[in-house]
Design goal:
Length: 224
């Protein structure tokens, strides 16, 4: 049991530590980040319940709509919505890089609980692949979401409503692409490798840009 839990939780903690330590300019309050992580963890249950009910009721005529489109949209929407109502206007969301941390935190909360449930069902032999794919992809979807929230809140040049919309649309598109690749039975791995390389490049580029915006933000405040 302890080994299984450790294997399920460790990837999320490792990825979050990586993004947290990338922020060398300021330290985000751990309590708020923990709360955001817990929001993501609690979201897992209503999302899984909703998916289960709609599947049992046969709402969708096509499996692609059910397993790929709906699954991607509902997961990213709930994370986006919670960030919008609980974190976006929070006093501790006070610089552009914070969006990266909060986005990664809520996504990894969701991914960690999902991973725990999955490993309890299918065993430790799936742990490595789960860490490489679902956990890391959720983290990167969250990074992209958080980047656009940071832009919406702190960029004077960006249009706030458009950036908030991008905070939802960009991770939804990436998630749909990810789930679409998984739906190609038999040869999905050949498509997943280049996609994950792109996703890491794209996510780390957003991290780098958020850090750049943070430097500019701090520089402007020093002038004031």
């Amino acid at each position: 049991m302890i080994i299984l839990l450790s294997a399920a939780i460790a990837p999320g903690l490792a990825l979050f530590s990586y993004f947290y330590l990338r922020n060398q300019m300021a330290t985000e309050p751990r309590r708020t980040l923990l709360q955001t992580f817990l929001y993501g963890a609690f979201l897992t249950f209503p999302i899984l319940f909703l998916q289960y009910v709609l599947t049992e009721e046969g709402v969708f005529r096509y499996l692609y709509l059910q397993d790929v489109v709906f699954s991607s949209v509902v997961e990213e929407f709930f994370k986006w919505f919670v960030l919008l109502i609980a974190i976006y206007n929070h006093v501790e969301f006070d610089d552009p890089y914070d969006g990266i941390l909060y986005g990664a935190s809520i996504s990894l909360g969701f991914a960690t609980i999902e991973n725990v449930l999955y490993l309890f069902s299918f065993g430790l032999n799936t742990a490595f692949m789960r860490a490489l794919l679902p956990v890391s992809s959720h983290a990167l979807f969250g990074v992209v979401m958080g980047y656009y929230y940071g832009r919406a809140k702190f960029s004077k040049l960006a249009k706030t409503k458009e950036m908030i919309a991008m905070a939802l649309c960009a991770p939804v598109v990436l998630h749909i692409l990810y789930n679409t690749i998984l739906s190609f039975k038999g040869y999905w791995v050949y498509l997943m490798i280049p996609f994950m390389l792109f996703l890491w490049w794209f996510g780390l580029r957003k991290v780098k840009l958020a850090h750049y915006h943070l430097v500019q933000h701090l520089h402007m405040h020093k002038k004031i």
